[in-house]
Fold this sequence. Notes:
By secondary structure, the chain is an alpha/beta fold. The chain has 3 domains: 1-80; 83-280, no CATH class; 298-464, Rossmann fold, CATH 3.40.50.1220. It is built from 18 helices and 8 strands. The strands form 2 sheets. Strands 5-4-3-6-7-8 form a 6-stranded parallel beta sheet. A two-stranded antiparallel sheet has the order 1-2. Residues 280-288 have low confidence and may be disordered.
Amino acid sequence: MSASLAAFLYLVSGALFIMALRGLSSPESSRQGNMYGMIGMGLAIVTTLLLAAPASGLAWALIIGGIAIGGAIGAVTAKRIAMTAMPQLVAAFHSLVGLAAVFVAAAAYYSPEAFGIATNGEIHAQSRVEMALGAAIGALTFTGSIIAFLKLDGRMSGKPIILPARHLINIALALALIVCIYSFFASQSAIAFWLIVVISLVLGLLLIVPIGGADMPVVISMLNSYSGWAAAGIGFTLANTALIITGALVGSSGAILSYIMCKGMNRSFISVILGGFGGETAAAAGGGEAKPVKQGSAEDAAFIMKNAGSVIIVPGYGMAVAQAQHALREMADHLKKAGVTVKYAIHPVAGRMPGHMNVLLAEANVPYDEVFELEDINSEFAQSDVAFVIGANDVTNPAAKDDPTSPIFGMPVLEVWKANTVMFIKRGMSSGYAGIDNGLFYRDNTMMLFGDAKKMTEEIVKAMG
Length: 465
């Protein structure tokens, strides 16, 4: 394949990736966006293989075997994974992207002539910079994503793990990393290269360990951005246009998403990196004497909602864990048949990753025109008869509005307490992932429905007849 034809095909694949991002920005066009992304990636892989076709049959066998094994693992994983585990799956995939960047950088370092980046054994100056940055960002992404995976999967505490003098340690490591990058640029030393990798691996671990569960949605999008920049850096080393375009798209979109998440939580990116906010807790964060709550039954909830004019449903991670989205849609169908207006309110950081609730509702065939983002529906709670909260906690906490001492004060939340009646499905009185008690539980217009989200919703549907 000629270089000009390859460049054209890479450009086409880049355009398909841009169309994929465009499609994935809306649940309605997400399937089409996914299809564009798959076609673009397939085209990029085939073009690369034809452009740099290996001479030996063994090389072809290794490449095809690797693609087959990787594709099979990906297909099986995607088929078996539950929607509730999607955040940790994304974190795991990010780690693989970072590790791949390190491996490619190492291969380019030890065989620079094969990559066309060396003259008489000396690696070109710009390639040394690209290689060092790609390896550093990739290694940081790898260990950071592993820690994020362990926290999201419950294999490590979601609470912040605060190390003594961690900021000084991180600053020292960052300075050491800069020194090693310069040393590698100046000397092409193998010791400097592997010091870059080791320091970055440690830095990735230390950066993510102190970040609490409440900031995990930001961490996911942040690591997504890192993996993109790592890929772009290695793309320059390989002189691969498709990899540069793809990495830049992923890196920039991840950075923008991180900004959106931080805005949705009223947090700065720096405060997220500094860590220390949020973690699971077994009891209400108040820690004082028990406060009275109003408890209701499925029959109470069914009666009130069937006689309401409008109901706004607020889904959260509890709905995802219980896999209650299908029962919820069935409940909504019953209400609509009774003449009740039903809408869904989604907070930007509901669940464990951006868009988590939108995907679950789409899986249950909830109509897209019934799903609204926070800024589009918050003003409607005051005119709504019922706010039905199923598994959402921190994103409905009134402390964000009326308690200046709360860690979440100023965070945009769904103002469900303004509805005439608030129904809150929850297993118990424990606080949310941020570890903060929710004063909404104790309000006069709140009715707690204790139990598994799916079972309680199914009982409500049964009571509606």
